[in-house]
Amino acid sequence: MAVAATTEAGARPSRAGRRPSAPAWVGTVPFFAYVAVFLLWPTAIVVVDSFKNSAGGWAFANITKLGDPLVRGYFIGSFKLCVLSSVIGAVFGAILAYAIASGNPDGVIRRLYLAGSGVLAQTGGVTLAFAFLVLIGPVGLLFHASWFYSFPWGITVIYTYFQIPLMVLVFMPAIDGIKVQWREASENLGASAWQYWRYVGGPLLMPAFLGGTLLLFANALSAFATIVAWENQISYIVPQQISTALSSEVGLSNVNVADLLAFGMIILVAIVMTGYGLLQRRAARWLQ
Amino acid sequence: MNALVAAAKKEGTLNVIALPPTWANYGNILKAFTAKYGIKINSALPDGSSQQEVNAVKSQHGTAKAPDVLDVGMAVALANTSLFAPYQVSTWSDIPTAQKESTGLWVQDYGGYMAIGYSSKYGTITSLNDLLGPKFKGAVALNGNPTSANAALNGVMMASLAEGGSASSISPGVNFFEKLKKAGNFNPVQATGATIKAGTTQVVFNWDYLNLPSYVGVSNWKVFIPQNAVLGGYYAQAINKGAPHPAAARLWEEFLYSQAAGGGQNLWLQGGARPVEQQAMQSNGSIDKAAAAKLPTVSGTPVFLSGPQSTDAANYLAANWAKAVS
What we know:
By secondary structure, chain A is an all-alpha fold.
């Protein structure tokens, strides 16, 4: 938000010289039309329909279904998986990013890792789950990991495969923003390495680190194809149960319950992304 | 019939949905229909579920893309009769009364028995409890989530029958899968031809026509149906009340229920499924005898789930399945 405000203020003087025919906001129409059709409208449908019954009438009592132990179980499952995979992904991703950043900034290693992370952060779905299944599944080529099908451990390991590279990508700019002069200054003042990280480096990087963790959390929350290819006979997480509620052919389908579960996820993502936005603002203060 | 053919040809198109080409010979059935009548078929969402078919009927209502005809599980058929148009095919009298809605809102089309398919490297399976042995570690899979997929629910129900349960109680089946999980033999991957070929699912509970070597794509594949657990299941045809191509939809039904050598009933049989007119065709001699001889033999009285039995089972699974196997 702060960034947007600055840009607007900075743009104002130049506006005076322009032809008055097209108002400035016209240029934003395609963007907002796109957002309205593909984000706001579907979100509104989900929210409204989650308070209706199958006949189309209002049913605000639906909300009590979020307290149902089964439904709560799916949210707890989602939460476990997201916390574990985002914390593990953030810690290892941050360490890896630091290792890359401390090397030659124009070196081939750095370029290789960043390009690789860009690809691997987008790897997921059936191919990824199947790769793990074939390597360490019940009849794995490498070995059979006995924890492969224990939730959330097996699927967490699979998720970290795309979580770590994503963390490298989002955390790298923060590490690059740390000026070497700060380190030199603290050393000149007699600070030990530990003191430097405790009082200078750590506090500087913490908002970016926590923000990155929240981004990974949201990333894991919405992943669906990967877990379904990993296993598809038990619903552990909310997106799996949404799928069941939409497509169950044995009489358990209920579109409104699916909407309600999706609504729950929207709330969760809204909370997480608000936190991410606040932390980004904090991180941006130092790392310009 | 001639008037129907002419009207259908004039429409020129048929929309079908959720018909996997490898399922019960549907690939050849679709081709044969187009070859015979010159009507183009739009096949949407080939791997969709029965519920997704009904969802499409509702969400695409009034558009030219809406499905004309449906092939759905019985639970979905019974719950959505208000969406269907009644139609009685010309072979109506050869369809057993219990397998059709009296006005023709839905008509069962083909079916089979729940079977355990397995790699022949395990030797011969003679009872369900063999599967609890150590050599089946991580091998035994269902075709989907039983709270969602009809075939998977019936897989658990078949285990229930073999374990002494009845069509009214699926809990012994859930207990069996819990034992299977404890023994480390349960494999929660959705079994498909690909997972069978890759060797990750070596024992699969599925309809017998989906458990044939030709369907799963491996030659060393055997099928076992427990003697005391013959669980049958039929799918049903229905015509969308708001079908964009009403004549083509009806002609498709005539084709599917035709007893001719190249008609739907024999084509399903060649795909390993049991066509609903099988008995009548055996009496009148129109059946493809070679294909009929290849069907897995069953001994014992087949059990069919009624609507309420199937709903009770689904509700029990909703509350207990995940707990038992996770």
